[in-house]
């Protein structure tokens, strides 16, 4: 009996380590996203999202063929319930892509950073609400601190940081639903992009007919960078989905502040965005919440 128990614990530990590695890789990739999307900022956000969909699907279909995953993909396409759920995740991830690219294009990397700083704590709350993951007092305090930070920023600027909140909620809900859906990461992402493909392709053809499309009209550098959006988009999403299958949502939330930290540093160093006293106070509340949550998570793991 004890041998079986030890084997089960070892398997769970290995699963957790794999999940952490996948999660770290995904969030590091996303951390460098502002650099990539700044390099293609001449492309309007909606057009860029459409290219992300088209080129992501091309890359994913190659992966599906290479891995022999067509039977599983076709099986999901035949299941109305799975298709209905994936339609919801498709809308969420497309919204997240569009809002993020728009934020980068208007020089609001700090807003994207704020959104993804909030996101880990949104994940904790969603885990509590929908997955019955128990929250202890330090986690509730962490959520309270983050909420205070957002409210302070909104009051001082006289406007709610909608871009930040949309980024946090859309990606938080995407991660929650994908975790609950029993579909392989590669298959799920392929079906999501397939569902988006008709709209994206129609829009790109429309731009081409109007003569306003950027692709193949603005030099070889962009003609290389735009198709790269498929690989840039698909790989971290696949890593994220794989991590989500192996980790608790709260653990994913703990890893997730790697990305906004990188966005924050890029915004105030490489991109020269203004970091005001109001930003500082707001971010300090959110960072305090993250530190409190992280210390609590560490102590819980150590027992």
Q: What structural class should be given to the helix and strand makeup? A: mainly alpha
Percent helix among the residues? Answer: over 70%
**Total number of domains:** 1
Oligomeric category: single chain
The ordered string of helix (H) and strand (E) elements is: HHHHHHHHHHHHH
- Strand segment count: 0
Mean pLDDT: 86
Radius of gyration, CA atoms, in whole angstroms:
20 Å
Total of DSSP H or I helical runs spanning 4+ residues: 13
Q: How many angstroms separate the termini?
A: 24 Å
Kindly estimate the percentage of residues that lie in beta strands according to DSSP: under 5%
Shape descriptor reads: globular
User: Which consecutive residue ranges, at least 5 long each, have pLDDT under 50?
Assistant: none
What composes the largest sheet?
Answer: none
Family: Belongs to the EamA transporter family.
Organism: Geomonas terrae
Keywords: Cell membrane, Membrane, Transmembrane, Transmembrane helix, Transport
Subcellular location: Cell membrane
């Amino acid at each position: 009996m004890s041998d079986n128990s030890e084997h089960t614990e070892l398997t769970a530990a290995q699963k957790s380590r794999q999940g952490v590695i996948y999660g770290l890789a995904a969030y590091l990739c996303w951390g460098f996203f502002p650099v990539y999307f700044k390099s293609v900022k001449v492309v309007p956000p909606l057009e860029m999202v459409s290219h992300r969909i088209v080129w992501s699907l091309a890359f994913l279909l190659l992966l599906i063929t290479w891995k022999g995953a067509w039977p599983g993909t076709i099986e999901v396409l035949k299941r109305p319930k799975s298709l209905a759920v994936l339609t919801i995740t498709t809308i969420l991830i497309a919204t997240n892509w569009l809002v993020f690219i728009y934020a980068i294009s208007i020089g609001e990397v700090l807003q994207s950073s704020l959104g993804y700083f909030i996101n880990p704590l949104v994940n904790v709350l969603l885990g509590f609400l929908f997955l019955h993951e128990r929250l202890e007092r330090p986690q509730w305090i962490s959520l309270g601190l983050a909420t205070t930070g957002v409210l302070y920023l909104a009051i001082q600027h006289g406007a709610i940081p909608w871009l930040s909140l949309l980024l946090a909620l859309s990606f938080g809900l995407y991660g929650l639903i994908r975790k609950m859906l029993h579909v392989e990461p590669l298959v799920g992402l392929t079906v999501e992009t397939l569902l988006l493909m008709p709209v994206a392709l129609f829009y790109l053809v429309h731009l081409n007919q109007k003569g306003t499309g950027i692709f193949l009209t603005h030099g070889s550098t962009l003609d290389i960078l735009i198709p790269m959006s498929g690989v840039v988009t698909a790989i971290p999403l696949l890593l994220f989905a794989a991590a989500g299958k192996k980790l608790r949502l709260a653990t994913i939330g703990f890893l997730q502040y790697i990305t906004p930290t990188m966005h924050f540093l890029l915004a105030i160093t490489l991109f020269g965005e203004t970091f005001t006293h109001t930003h500082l106070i707001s971010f300090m509340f959110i960072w305090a919440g993250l530190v409190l949550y992280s210390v609590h998570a560490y102590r819980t793991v150590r027992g």
